[in-house]
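Morning run. Coffee first, then this:
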Amino acid sequence: MLFVYLFFFAKQVKEFLFINQVPADFANINTIFLSIVMEAIPFILLGVFASALIQSFISEKTLQRMLPKHAFLAMLPAALLGIIFPICECAIIPVVRRLIKKGLPLHVGIVILVTVPILNPVVFLSTYFAFPHNAPVLYYRMGLAFLAAMLIGSAIYFIFKDKNIVKDSPLSHHHHTHQRNRWIQTLHHASEEFFDTGKYLIIGSFIASLFQTYLNRDILVSIGTNDSIAPAVMMGFAYVLSLCSEADAFVASSFSSTFTTGSLIAFLVLGPMIDLKNTLMLFAYFRKRFVIAFLFLIFSIVYGLVWILQAFVL
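And here it is:
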């Protein structure tokens, strides 16, 4: 109601509240924040509905039948599962944990964990729309994510081959929903996930708009154009912002004027694989040693790949 009212009477409200005296910085934060949120919401909605449909209609048995038995061959289709299952990174951790407990090899589960939030149609579209004039960002994002996942999966296979890394504490995850109609269940999951992801998007967009308004442009430009530091800075940024993979391309594109293409790709590849909120979830589901090794692997492999990309391709 408020939105509709303001849509028609914004001018009168503005005059009444002396909005013109608001500092320019606040107006700037507001504009950047709203533009990121408004662009991202349709993609998040798309993502949560797809995720909820999978949750309600596809069993783990189906997934297991689809994957080859060979240790390394199984990683290929696992990496491409996102194309059929667009699940956001917040929703994938419980799914992967359940699959590993049901006998899916750990390294295959980890490949699913890191690629599904990136290599999926929703993220492909959102990146395409966020970078309409910079197609390489889209293709390198997808390519590097696939390569990084293969390397991470292989490393995990050799390090944690026969170790049990899943915590036994069963976190309650909606066991009561079986009795209900599957469509109602889907709506229930989608709305729950939307509000869950939505709050991270809002916090992330707000921090991004603060950064862009108050961070000294000269410092940003000097960091952003440095091939060694910029990717590391953007990876740290992606980690802290904890954006949803369906929305992060819009935040990244708002930095495209100050940061190199390589560092934007680093931001877009690392963010969906691991971030602050994900790390907390991983500690709840998996053993500490595994989570720390996993973090180290992701950061070093993504940085290494971006460095190679910058040195030889971009």
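The mean pLDDT is 82. Good start to the day.
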